[in-house]
């Protein structure tokens, strides 16, 4: 399978075609794809998903995809790497957390985001603004980044796990997404709180998760939190005190203990 490699932190691509030119492929970056016009089929990991104007897709390096075009289609691509996600200026915790959540939980929305009518209009305007900034990427770098963060906020609030209780799913992907969203809020990850959120009993929550995930709820949360903590430390941009505050931890020593325990658990497996 062909694999496209991108070395620039971010690229913007805008093109219109009546026939797709690329084979099924993967890439080493993330892609936020906006359908400006047209319709057809988006094949992601061998699953066929109809697309139309106004749809948005978020793909990661693991996804293999291509398009089958019915009506001439215009695509706008925002392609960014981990380097761009973790660049030095990214110091707005809340918005970075939104983007991290979307990237980690994208399995839920590989079929495309089902946006509300008002959000569809807003997203269209944002992509028009991004295109207006495209010709001078260096000069407009920060403005482009601000639009990506705004898009992540809009897309996140259209995730099915965050809708009203009557439409809330209880499947494992919904539970994973809940964990990813609340990893910065330890109190929201207590078993009794999660059980109430998903309308199941506290005693059933732990066994249900282990049976379907192959690991305990506590171990999964610890592993995911530890992975994020390591990314923060590796970036060299945050002190342990800042990291502890972001993740709702007691102090700097708590950060170190979590990472040490995760490393110990991995080495014992």
Automatic annotation (TrEMBL):
Matches recorded under InterPro entries: AraC-bd, HTH-like, HTH_AraC, RmlC-like_jellyroll
Pfam families, alphabetized: AraC_binding (PF02311), HTH_18 (PF12833)
Domain HTH araC/xylS-type, residue spans: 173-269
Signal peptide start-end: none
Family matches, as SUPFAM superfamilies: Regulatory protein AraC
Source species, domain of life: Bacteria
Gene3D superfamilies tied to this protein: Homeodomain-like (1.10.10.60), Jelly Rolls (2.60.120.10)
Keywords: DNA-binding
Keyword Electron transport set for record: no
Protein name in UniProt: AraC family transcriptional regulator
């Amino acid at each position: 399978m062909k694999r496209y490699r991108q070395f620039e932190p971010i690229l913007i691509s805008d093109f219109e075609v009546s026939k797709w030119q690329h084979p099924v492929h993967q890439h080493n970056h993330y892609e936020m794809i906006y359908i400006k016009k047209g319709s057809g089929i988006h094949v992601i990991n061998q699953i066929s998903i109809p697309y139309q104007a106004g749809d948005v897709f978020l793909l990661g390096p693991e996804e293999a995809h291509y398009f089958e075009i019915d009506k001439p289609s215009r695509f706008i691509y925002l392609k960014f790497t981990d380097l761009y996600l973790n660049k030095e200026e990214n110091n707005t915790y809340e918005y970075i957390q939104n983007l991290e959540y979307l990237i980690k939980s994208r399995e839920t929305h590989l079929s495309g985001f089902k946006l509300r009518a008002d959000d569809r209009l807003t997203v269209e305007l944002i992509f028009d603004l991004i295109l207006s900034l495209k010709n001078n990427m260096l000069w407009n770098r920060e403005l482009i980044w601000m639009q990506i963060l705004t898009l992540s906020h809009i897309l996140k609030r259209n995730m099915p796990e965050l809708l009203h209780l009557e439409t809330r799913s209880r499947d494992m992907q919904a539970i994973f997404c809940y964990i990813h969203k609340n990893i910065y809020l330890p109190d929201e990850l207590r078993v009794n709180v999660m059980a109430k959120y998903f309308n199941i009993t506290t005693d059933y929550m732990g066994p249900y998760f282990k049976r379907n995930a192959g690991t305990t709820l506590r171990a999964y949360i610890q592993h995911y939190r530890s992975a994020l903590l390591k990314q923060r430390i590796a970036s060299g941009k945050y002190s342990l005190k800042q990291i502890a505050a972001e993740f709702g931890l007691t102090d700097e020593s708590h950060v170190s203990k979590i990472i040490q325990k995760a490393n110990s658990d991995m080495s014992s497996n």
